[in-house]
Amino acid sequence: MGNGLWKDVWLLTKRSIVTTLRSPFSFIPNLLISMFFLVVYDSGLSGIAELPAFEGANYLAFILPVSVVSAAIGGAGGAGQGIVKDIENGFFSRLLLTPASRLSIVLGPIIAGMTQLFVQTLLIISIGFVMGLKVETGFFGVLVVLLLAIGWGLAFAGYSAGVALRTKNAQAAQAGTLIFFPLIFLSTTFVPYELIEASWLKVAATINPTTYIFESMRTVLIEGWIFWDIAQGFIAIGIVCFITITFAAVSAKKAVSRG
């Protein structure tokens, strides 16, 4: 049973990856936009780092998580789009007639999205190093950033897949994913929490899980191994993953029951 599940997951993940590679324009724009954010924000806002609240931190290291998280959101959204395409072209219905595990039908596109995200994050970090990025915690700090990006992407992929299975419509699924982009800007996107002046924005940043992803990444990039600051990001990811993956699983069950 277990071996059959993982075999099904592998085959469907491989198919999703091959499908993505055949349509490079489905992921290249998102990657270019994330890199654009990194270059423009660092060039135009780096002077903010001279403020006392930054304590001499490199603004490139401060802004890099914004580019990584935006790539995670855009890249993981491909999981939902892949499911919608399979529904619209009839492949999803044919899959339901095979012995393939129902769980693998959902996990395949999600894992493919995570693989795409892993490559995108590596490219963004590489561009960062070309621009002069220095990581306080070295190689293992880069691994932590990758894990945080993949974890956050997994949370978003679950939501994206759930919306796709609920709506079975490409436009509706794409519109549903827009909810995550405001989370980037209702956070400590450009300045530390201490420099946010609007009280409502401070409240939004406090309850926003993206804030804790940013802070965890910035801790390993700028400050070092501060356990609790890093752990908060993984805790936030765990909570959101539980919610979104459960949403995807329930949506998949209903989609299968409807045939």
UniProtKB/TrEMBL annotation:
- Protein biosynthesis in keyword set: no
Q: Does the keyword Cell membrane apply?
A: yes
Look up the signal peptide feature and give its range: none
Return the PROSITE patterns for the record.
Answer: ABC_TM2
Domain ABC transmembrane type-2 per the UniProt entry, residue ranges: 25-255
One Pfam family name is: ABC2_membrane
Q: How does it sit in the membrane?
A: Multi-pass membrane protein
* Chief location category: membrane
Q: Which UniProt keywords apply?
A: Cell membrane, Membrane, Transmembrane, Transmembrane helix, Transport
Which parts of the chain span the membrane according to its record?
21-41, 61-84, 105-133, 139-160, 172-193, 225-250
> Where located?
Cell membrane; Membrane
The UniProt similarity line reads: Belongs to the ABC-2 integral membrane protein family.
Q: What is this protein called?
A: Transport permease protein
Species in which this protein is naturally found: Pontibacillus salicampi
